[in-house]
Amino acid sequence: MGATASSGMWKTGESAQEQGLGYVPDAYQVPLRDRPSLFPDTATVPLIDLGGLWKDAVQRSLVIKDIANACCRFGFFQIVNHGICQTVMDEALQAASSFFDSPTDEKMKYMSNDVHKPVRYATSFKDGVDKTQSWRVFLKHYAHPLEHWMGQWPENPPRYREKMGRFCAQARKVTVDLMEAITEGLGLGPSYLTSKMEAGMQVMAVNCYPPCPNPEVALGLPPHCDYTCLTVVLQSSPGLQIMDLDDCTWKSVPKIPGALQVHVGDHLEVLSNGLYKSVYHRAVLNSERTRFSIASLHSLGLDETMEPAEELVGAQGKKYRGSSFRDFLNFLATNDLGEHKSFIDSLKINQ
Ligand code: OGA
Ligand code: NI
Q1: Which residue lies with its CA nearest to atom 6 of ligand 1?
Q2: Closest residue (by CA) to atom 10 of ligand 1?
Q3: What atom in ligand 1 is closest to the CA of residue 224?
Q4: What residue stretches are annotated with the Fe2OG dioxygenase domain (predicted)?
């Protein structure tokens, strides 16, 4: 009997994490080399005050430089003064929490394993298929343009659409501002991607990690890079870890009140021709309380190809081939990302 057959027992609706099992079944136990340390080092990731982006040119250029350094060194940073008010963030987390508290039947209306579906509820990474199950429950939904997708989001809890919608719109605005700062920092000018981002995708990954009775043997999310240009994440409590490229160890990301996390995604690595790194990250668990995170994933249009910018290619030539969001969905549908298969590696030329 293969691992797939045993993980089939834990499909969405009946998973260990939804049932609140008091032990971690074998199908969830990650191989020894991938188990999280109980005492990880803390990442010394930059905390960037975005306030300066809208002040004078000197302050703007300082912030842009800080962002550029963070994208090079970590592919990751945290932001404050981002313009999203605390109430909007709190209410989005509340809406997420109430959704996951709904009766199973209600949530199962949205259950799907088809990664191309614009709204879907599922567990693990790819329910029923992952070799090792992840202790996660999630709702994913498209969010841009809001008026196009919102009608397909869950009707219950009653204010889910309103509260989540407000956060989506504001997260989108921050992302557009950040992308402008990033392309400006790359020497491509602030509007290099603006219109393509405007016509692009925003996918929300609303994650719930119930308490895990044995958090050192399982993971909430296996190590992965995000297939995006940029991901902006709001979390209810700590649990995110990133791979430190300098010493190749996992470091935990400190929780800073009011801050959001920003991940460089695969497509920004491609655009920069490898100058910026798509951050390798994972979510760890705890035995005490449920953790929620809301990841706002931003990319270009479904069939829009991202290529290294000509201006950044230089003598070494293009290090990545072009790809679209649809190419990633097709990759996701046929590969187990929990098994260290990464989309960005599949794009690398001559390596
Ligand atoms: C994701 C993700 C991290 C977290 O949804 O892609 O990496 O902290 N989430 O839940
Ligand atoms: Ni991620």
Answers
A1: 226
A2: 293
A3: 7
A4: 197-300
Report pLDDT digits (tens) over 119-172. 999 998 766 567 899 999 999 999 999 999 999 999 999 999 999 999 999 999
Question: Is the distance from the beta carbon of residue 283 to the nearest atom of ligand 1 less than 6 Å?
Answer: yes
DSSP secondary structure, 73-141, as one string? HTSEEEEES-S--HHHHHHHHHHHHHHHHS-HHHHHTTB---TT-SEEEEETTTTTT-SS--S-EEEEE
pLDDT for residue 2 is more than 50 = no
Residue 240 Cβ < 6 Å to ligand 1: yes
- Pairing status of strand 119-123 against strand 137-142: antiparallel
CA of 206 to the centre of ligand 1 (A): 9
What percentage of the chain has pLDDT greater than the value 70? 95
- Candidates 122, 115, 110; CA nearest to 17 is 122
Q: At what angle do helices 160-185 and 57-73 cross, to 10 degrees?
A: 100
The reply to whether ligand 1 has any atom less than 6 angstroms from the CB of 221 is yes
Looking at residues 277-306, what average pLDDT do you find? Answer: 96
- The DSSP code sequence of 214-281 is STTT--SEEEE--SSSEEEEEESS--EEEEETTTTEEEEPPP-TT-EEEEE-HHHHHHTTTSS-PPPE
